[in-house]
Write a structure and sequence with these properties.
heterotrimer, A alpha/beta, B mainly alpha, C mainly alpha, A: alpha/beta, 6-stranded mixed sheet, 17 helices, 20 strands, C: mainly alpha, two-stranded antiparallel ribbon, 2 strands, 76% helix, 1% strand, globular
């Protein structure tokens, strides 16, 4: 089958943004009818490559052939005409147009879209709805349906399953398999090794903008991880032994205590406490109220009822500044939300120092530099691109957000999914940091979407389901099965009954 | 972080908001007219005629601004473009007869489209933000207007000037209003009913998503500027009709007022949202306000204060409600 | 060539200074013998009020805003000064600055508290200020306006017949702005708010306070600029500072401050103001009619801004 020229062949593609070389020399070869995984740690250049292939921006160097013919697209519209369509990480759906108008925008037939939407299980979406009013997850599926409806020769899916609940992901896989069986090719980008192994034939691995290997995916997880990391950092995946739970110190007030917290339909009477020197894990499926919980504690949203105490004192939380003053600081889910992309690492880390009016005056530059350097060293932030934070990789951006609070000082760190979408090296550093924070007598409230992390990083775990706490356990007992049961709202007895 | 909760309760809100968008402005106009009649019982068909005629240039300026704003831009050169069309028509038609004047009108429209095209190309290719680009091109068009006619003068045949005067169909339906509707419909309907409209709304709503959906965003925005230029040309000729002459500095007022009309008329400055009815009715309201002042016996010099205050109050109140809703 | 471009890309301020030099040489070529110490003195004299006004505009644009009321505020300040000169210089100057404070407060309330788009808000307050001035002027017909001596000295005087007095005011203001942006918490916050408002909110910054203070500051600087302008012309009319609106925005943009906020500074604006002032002088030398001058001026600003956008991208 190697005789036929590959459907898409890319050689030596390079791209530089200002001072940053996003791609140095990327090669990619996709055969007709193949599902091909594109893998690499954050910042390896996967998304850049996808955008070059679809003409979002031009390559600086390198060549691309499509079915043996040289090709270069100046816009996604041109790529679409040549049969290459991508579903990007953020849906290419215009918010103020209706779903139907969005379909017309891309000139696809509405019958085909409807068929694709049926296959994906989202046919109940009214085509006359304004896209702004449609859920994010559904929008991505609509985007996918639109891409499928244009009958591409090559379909590119960039982290398509990232925001999807499990049942919809299954649908997507099925549709993609059917699509492939019609002879078209799929380029699939994902961090989830299981999906890759299940769906793809071969994988191309990028590291630091260079293609470092192409391998069949069957049973090659270890190889792929090693290629991605390029060294023995890969061992970070092996779990350290779970730690024993800290003895509760009953005589002192807990660092953070939440009582009967309620917020709209999202939270109903949530109560828990985080002791000093403890890392409390929060586990939950998508959308069980965890975002609202963190936001309410951090003063980003106002709870409807209930109270939040820090070291025994009841807080009035009307602005994040109120929470920060009480030592409760938030590392939000989306790191871009809390960064100043055009400013330096130093300015980003120092930002929290300027919350009060009295800090508007002259800055003690030496003192600031000392604090920032301390935090940067502690988190091992790669400062080669320190002049503008937007040039940093995802993992380093996440570290900058945490470094801000290390520099400013805090009592309880509210950490929302800090390891989402960052590479394993950075993940390991963040776990170690949580531990170190707790060992200093500070506390951490940690939500993570990856359940195995609970045992790695926490002392104790609570599980949210439907806006209420559905389980609490020491980390040692928080294996995936038990967490999942609680996360689905099943008690042990119910689970046993369900299994029987 | 999307919440599922307001989604359900929100649908009735949205229905209400949608109804408000369609009916709010007409109701406001009706209420304002009723209030005007209350303070000035003699307000009749003649006053309606002069209101429509007086509002004609502003309504077209508002239409011009609305198209650009919907496409995601803003045009601060509208006043100068109206001035160019004003002096161009007044100097060309000065010694022409009625038929020639109508033919020359087409020339003025083409010139307007040309100015709009230049605006659009500058915005599309220079990568200068719209505000700065059109502030500067506005300065240039101002120079062009002075070049055509250094001081107020020129004119047009009486028959041409009188097209908008009076009411040939029905005393309560002034010719000026008919012209307003016809001119704006002639510009807007082809846009709204064709793919161009879709592209313009898409480009204004989310340029990145539109580009990735296959829209040529810069082309769409350039087209919006061209139509804006055509609307300005209509506006400039309407100004010739209402004033009888060409004045190179007469346009300045329309830049500010067109932005005001667009904002009051419910077109989002963020782009992608709004229509044409709102801004046009807002133009009528902005013209009615000084008339009411005269009826009340207030110094007409207060007109500009009132208009400025009106804009400031409207946007502040809108901001206040958005703020409240967010807090909720 | 590409090495030079690369260097200029990293150090845009040199590109601007180079451009300024080119314009100065242009003046000398058009009319040899023009560039003298006195010419330089005149250039600074005229550049100072523009640069002061553009200083406020820079602060506002760093936060991602724009203030289109600066010209009206400057005119208003100048007009109030001239019509109240009989009440004593101090009172007149106080009233003039009060115009800035009031309009700045209104802008601040709208933009910072009620989150109105700065463009619309300041367009509206500019219109309002202009309107109030018209009404005010109707009631002021009787009194004879004049400009107090101290302001005339500020706007037109020179030390040793060469160094313009307004340069000293400009230097003080420039030093404060440059220091403030680099080395104070408020300056940091201006960049931060312009770059990402939400991030500031999450970091515990009360964003509205920053914006509020900023718009008041900008309007006060515009009022000061108005005083310098009227000191130079020695006559206040209702369109005195209108011609400053476009340049006040243009020299900030040419000076490299992003209109979307978060990037730029005052140093570029200073050079931008000098470039535009020299450009005006150059066009005057060219001996063309006023409309042609206006067209050329606009076209050159457009090409400069476009070139800058290409250089820094």
């Amino acid at each position: 089958m190697n005789e036929a020229p590959p459907l898409l062949h890319i050689r030596g593609v390079a791209k530089t943004f200002g001072a940053v070389r996003a791609l140095r020399s990327a090669d990619l070869e996709v055969r007709a009818g193949e599902a091909h995984a594109l893998m690499g740690a954050n910042g390896a250049g996967k998304s850049t490559l996808v955008k070059i292939i679809t003409g979002v921006f031009p390559a600086d160097a390198g060549e691309m052939t499509l079915a043996g013919q040289p090709a270069a697209f100046r816009s996604p519209a041109e790529a679409r005409r040549a049969g290459i369509v991508s579903v990007y990480q953020d849906p290419a759906i215009v918010p103020d147009l209706t779903v139907a108008q969005n379909m017309r925008l891309a000139r696809v037939s509405s019958d085909k879209v409807k068929a694709a939407m049926r296959d994906l299980g989202v046919e109940r979406v009214d085509l006359k709805t304004v896209a702004r009013d449609v859920d994010f997850a559904l929008l991505r599926l609509i985007d996918l349906a639109r891409a499928l409806a244009s009958d591409p020769r090559i379909l590119m899916l960039d982290e398509i399953t990232a925001a999807l609940p499990a049942d919809l992901s299954e649908r997507v896989f099925k549709v993609v398999r059917d699509f492939r069986s019609r002879g078209a090719s799929v380029i699939f980008i994902s961090h989830r090794m299981a999906e890759i192994a299940m769906l793809c034939d071969r994988a191309t691995v990028l590291r630091d903008g260079i293609t470092v290997g192409v391998t069949p995916t069957k049973g090659a997880e270890e190889t792929i991880v090693n290629l991605m990391l390029g060294s023995d950092v890969a061992k970070a995946t092996t779990a350290p032994a779970a730690r024993p739970a800290r003895p509760e110190t009953a005589h002192e007030a807990p660092a953070l205590e939440v009582k009967d917290l309620a917020y709209g339909h999202a939270l109903h009477g949530v109560s828990f406490r985080v002791n000093r020197g403890e890392v409390l894990g929060v586990a939950a499926l998508e959308g069980q109220g965890q975002e609202e919980l963190f936001d309410c504690i951090a003063g980003v949203r106002r709870a409807d009822a209930g109270e939040v105490r820090a070291e025994g004192r009841v807080l009035k939380l009307r602005h994040p500044a109120d929470a920060i003053r009480a030592g409760l600081v938030l590392v939000p889910a989306n790191r871009l939300v809390s960064l100043l992309p055009q400013r330096s690492v130093q300015e980003n880390v120092a930002l929290a120092a300027f919350g009060r009016l009295r800090s508007w005056g002259p800055i003690a530059m030496g003192e600031e530099r000392r604090r920032v350097d301390m935090a940067v060293r502690k988190l091992q932030i790669d400062t080669r691109a320190a002049a503008e934070v937007r040039r940093l990789s995802g993992g380093n951006m996440q570290k900058v957000v945490i470094a801000r609070w290390i520099a400013a000082g805090f009592k309880t760190l509210l950490c929302f999914d800090p390891t989402r979408g960052i590479d394993m090296g950075a993940k390991k550093q963040i776990y170690a940091l949580m531990r170190e924070i707790a060992d200093q007598g500070l506390s951490v409230l940690l939500f993570t979407s990856e359940l195995p992390e609970i045992r790695l990083a926490c002392d104790r775990a609570i599980v949210l389901f439907g806006g209420q706490i559905s389980g609490e356990m020491p980390a040692a007992e928080a294996d995936e099965a038990r967490l999942l049961r609680a996360a689905h709202g099943l008690t042990r007895a119910e689970a046993a009954a369900a299994l029987a | 972080m999307t919440d599922a909760a307001p989604r359900n309760t929100g649908s009735s809100w949205r229905t209400l908001a949608r109804a408000g968008r369609f009916l709010g402005m007409p109701l406001l106009l009706a209420a304002s007219l009723a209030a005007t009649v209350a303070v000035h019982p003699d307000f009749g068909s003649f006053e309606i005629q002069s209101l429509a005629l007086g509002a004609l240039p502003l309504a077209l300026a508002a239409a011009a601004q609305a198209i650009v704003v919907i496409s995601g831009g803003i045009d601060l050169s509208i006043g100068s473009m109206i001035a160019v069309s004003n002096v161009l028509s007044a100097s060309l038609m000065h010694h022409a007869d009625f038929r020639q004047s109508l033919a020359l009108s087409i020339l003025v429209l083409v010139a307007g489209a040309g100015q709009g095209l230049l605006n659009g190309l500058v915005v599309a290719f220079s990568r200068i933000p719209d505000v700065v680009a059109t502030l500067t091109t506005g300065f240039i068009w101002g120079g062009v207007a002075l070049l055509i006619l250094e001081r107020p003068g020129g004119g047009a045949p009486a028959a041409y000037l009188n097209i908008g005067a009076g009411a040939d169909f029905w005393p309560w339906l002034p010719n000026a209003l008919v012209m307003m509707i016809v001119a704006i419909a002639a510009i807007w309907l082809p846009i709204r009913l064709s793919r161009i409209g879709l592209l313009i709304y898409a480009a204004g709503s989310d340029p990145v998503a539109a580009f990735r959906s296959g829209v040529n965003v810069m082309q769409a925005r350039t087209i919006a500027y061209v139509f804006s230029g055509i609307a300005c040309a209509f506006g400039g000729m309407a100004l010739t009709m209402t004033t009888g002459i060409g004045a190179p500095l007469a346009g300045a007022y329309y830049t500010l007022s067109s932005v005001a009309a667009v904002v009051i008329g419910g077109v989002s400055l963020a782009g992608g949202r709004g229509g044409m009815v709102g801004p046009v009715i807002a133009a009528l309201l902005l013209t009615l306000a000084p008339m009411v002042l005269v009826f009340l016996g207030i110094d007409p010099n207060y007109g500009q204060v009132i208009q400025g205050t009106l804009i400031v109050l409207v946007v502040m109140i809108a901001g206040f409600f958005a703020f409240l809703q967010e807090r909720k | 060539m590409s090495a030079v471009l690369g260097f200029l890309r990293g150090h845009t301020i040199y590109a601007l200074i180079l451009l300024l030099a080119v314009f100065v040489i242009g003046v000398e070529i058009v009319r040899p013998g023009t560039v003298t110490p006195l010419w330089a003195s005149n250039t600074i004299l005229f550049a100072a009020p523009l640069a002061i006004m553009a200083g406020g505009q820079t602060l506002v644009m760093l936060t991602g805003g724009i203030d289109l009321s600066v010209a009206s505020v400057a005119t208003g300040a100048a007009y109030l000064l001239a019509t109240n000169a009989s009440a004593g210089s101090a009172t007149a100057i106080g009233l003039a600055l009060l115009v800035g404070v009031i309009v700045g407060l209104i802008n601040g309330i709208g933009v910072a508290l009620l989150r109105v788009q700065p463009l619309v808000m300041t367009l509206g307050t500019g219109l309002m200020t202009g309107g109030v001035l018209i009404v005010y002027s109707q009631h002021m017909m009787a009194s004879q306006p004049h400009v107090p001596d101290i302001i005339q000295t500020l706007g037109a005087g020179r030390v040793f017949g060469l160094v313009p007095i307004d340069l000293f005011l400009w230097l003080i203001i420039a030093a404060l702005i440059l220091f403030g942006l680099q080395r104070t918490g408020f300056g940091r916050l201006l960049y931060a708010v312009g770059d990402n408002r939400e991030a500031c909110h999450l970091a515990g910054v009360r964003v509205w306070r920053v914006l509020f203070a900023n718009y008041v500051l900008c309007a006060i600087l515009a009022a000061i600029a108005g005083l310098v302008v009227v000191g130079g012309t020695n006559a206040a009319d209702l369109s005195l500072a209108d011609s400053y609106l476009l340049p006040s925005v243009a020299c900030v943009v040419i000076g490299g401050t992003s209109i979307f906020g978060g990037r730029g500074g005052y140093a570029g604006t200073i050079v931008g103001a000098l470039i535009l002032t020299v450009l005006t002088g150059l066009l005057t030398l060219l001996d063309v009619s006023e409309p042609i001058k206006q067209i050329l001026y606009g076209a050159i600003i457009l090409s400069l801004a476009a070139a800058y956008a290409r250089l820094t991208e």
